[in-house]
Design goal:
It is built from six helices and no strands. By secondary structure, the protein is mainly α.
Length: about 150
């Protein structure tokens, strides 16, 4: 392992976790109180002060707590361990991927709608050709009128 490949120190990891927690919470407009309530609802005895201490790096996190936080904040667990700048780029890529998938689904739906309309137009052309002769005259009009 080279110097560039060294793992972050435990302090770096805790600082990353704290910074990412605060960033994600604030981006989703979740207050510290609301986050503490969500954690308590999942069985973790958190209060607003707990969130403050975690975000300030004054309190260590248990793995189960980290998993619950990831669930509450709708983010992968590994998101907390990434440097903030890298995590932001990953989030942007994931958001772009989601938009791309939505756009793809919209295009598929539009193509299906277009194909349905094309088939309907073709059926109407066939029906119209059966009703009108080559000169555009109505064929068998009295017979059709009697059926109606």
């Amino acid at each position: 392992m080279t110097d560039d490949d060294q793992l972050p120190s435990p302090d770096d990891t805790e600082q990353r976790f704290a910074a990412n927690l605060r960033l994600l919470r604030e981006r989703q407009d979740i207050s510290q109180v609301k986050l503490a309530q969500e954690m308590a609802a999942r069985g973790w005895p958190w209060r607003q002060q707990t969130v403050t201490r975690v975000e300030n790096g004054q309190r260590m996190i248990r793995f189960g707590e980290a998993t619950a936080l990831a669930e509450i904040l709708h983010t992968p667990l590994e998101r907390f361990a990434r440097p903030v700048s890298e995590a932001d780029e990953v989030e942007k890529i994931r958001a772009a991927d989601a938009r791309l998938r939505e756009s793809f689904e919209a295009v598929v739906a539009a193509v299906c709608h277009l194909l349905d309309a094309q088939r309907t137009a073709e059926r109407l052309q066939v029906l119209n050709a059966g009703v009108h002769g080559d000169e555009g005259e109505i064929v068998n009009a009295p017979a059709r009128a009697g059926r109606a």
